[in-house]
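Tokens as discussed.
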């Protein structure tokens, strides 16, 4: 019977990055994924790297480390991640005060610059000038997340790690407080340590085994177009993004119990209208976010797509009319917008690596730090991200 040092559950961007860094440190590592090709948040990611968005000493440092990793990652992984840096345009709604938004962004590591309506339309000619009162702009990183994840996975295997396609159905337990492996559709697999990198389904997966974690999820909805000749000059997002307020409201103590069973929506849905184009010409339009407590909840795709098209058409009329396909996935988050990284309290052998609200900016740095900390390297940042910072 093979017993690995680490089994990493979930081969999206977080799991693949972590498995690579673990294997590179010399740990025997197995990466498990139930879907091939991927179907979750990694598959439908915008690919944006908001390395400018740190607002505390901790997040500024992680963002700075993250962008430096991205700049050399293609060479290290021996595969093209399609990394680039380009202009992000944060549109200010016609009824909003641009100067007030400038103040809101003043604490960011790299505060965005205010543009007039004319300047914004010069930077992004597809904008509808009557729909905005101006815009903010800042340089922004971008990758093709599926290619980056594949690159991490292949590099992990080159340094000795393994990849298996199997669904995790539960955990192998030794007594009440020790996890020694996972049960899967291909049989039990054993390890000294398990890392859960399953994004939005993490809470349900652990809860089914009696393990409670303070992680939450939204249902994110987007439209993806086929490659098109229509070209965006920038990445377009709203300056007044509602998603982070939705996450804060959905984790208040008065709604905490709702997350323990399906069928609830702790707070109303929001729609942040934006559009991102990839190098091959595809555009992802989104996004609607819903806090439905059932990760398998049914959503009215027809109505959702109509709402998305109406909202984006006001900002980018030509984009809103493009043919495309509606998609849906779940996205994990925590109560304080920092990820949950490290051992789950009171249960030996199981760790979280999930809940990233700004994943692409910080995952590469945190994966590297976490793996290094397991070799005995003291890391105060990893300690600050411990799931134990919340009461279980």
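Sequence:
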């Amino acid at each position: 019977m093979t017993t690995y040092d680490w089994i990493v559950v979930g081969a999206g961007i977080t799991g693949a990055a972590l498995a690579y860094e673990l294997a590179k440190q010399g740990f025997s590592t197995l990466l498990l994924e139930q879907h091939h090709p991927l179907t979750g948040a990694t598959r439908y990611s915008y690919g944006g790297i908001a390395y400018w968005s740190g607002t505390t000493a901790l997040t500024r440092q992680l963002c700075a480390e993250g962008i430096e990793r991205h700049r050399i990652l293609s060479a290290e992984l021996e595969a093209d991640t399609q990394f680039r840096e380009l202009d992000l345009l944060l549109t200010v709604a016609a009824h909003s005060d641009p100067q007030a938004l400038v103040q809101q962004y003043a604490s960011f590591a790299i505060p965005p610059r205010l543009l007039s309506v004319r300047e914004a339309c010069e930077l992004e000619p597809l904008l509808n000038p009557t729909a905005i009162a101006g815009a903010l702009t800042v340089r922004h990183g971008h990758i093709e997340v599926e290619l980056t994840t594949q690159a991490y996975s292949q590099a992990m295997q080159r340094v000795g790690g393994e990849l298996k396609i199997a669904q995790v159905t539960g955990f192998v337990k030794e007594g009440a407080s020790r996890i020694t492996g996972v049960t899967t559709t291909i049989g039990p697999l054993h390890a000294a340590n398990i890392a859960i990198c399953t994004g939005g389904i993490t809470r349900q997966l652990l809860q089914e085994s009696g393990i409670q974690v303070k992680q939450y999820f939204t249902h994110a909805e987007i439209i993806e177009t086929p490659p098109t000749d229509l070209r965006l000059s920038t990445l377009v997002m709203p300056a007044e993004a509602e998603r982070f307020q939705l996450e804060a409201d959905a984790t208040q103590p008065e709604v905490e119990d709702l997350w323990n069973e399906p069928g609830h929506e702790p707070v109303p849905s929001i729609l942040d209208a934006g559009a991102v184009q990839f190098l091959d010409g595809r555009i992802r339009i989104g996004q609607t976010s819903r806090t439905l407590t059932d990760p398998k909840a049914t959503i009215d795709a027809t109505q959702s797509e109509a709402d998305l098209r109406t909202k984006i058409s006001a900002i980018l009329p030509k984009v809103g009319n493009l043919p495309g396909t509606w998609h849906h996935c779940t996205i994990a988050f925590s109560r304080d917008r920092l990820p949950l990284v490290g051992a789950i309290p009171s249960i030996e052998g199981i760790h979280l690596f999930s809940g990233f609200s700004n994943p692409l900016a910080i995952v590469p740095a945190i994966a590297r730090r976490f793996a290094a900390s397991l070799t005995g390297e003291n890391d105060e940042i990893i300690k600050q991200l411990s799931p134990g910072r919340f009461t279980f």
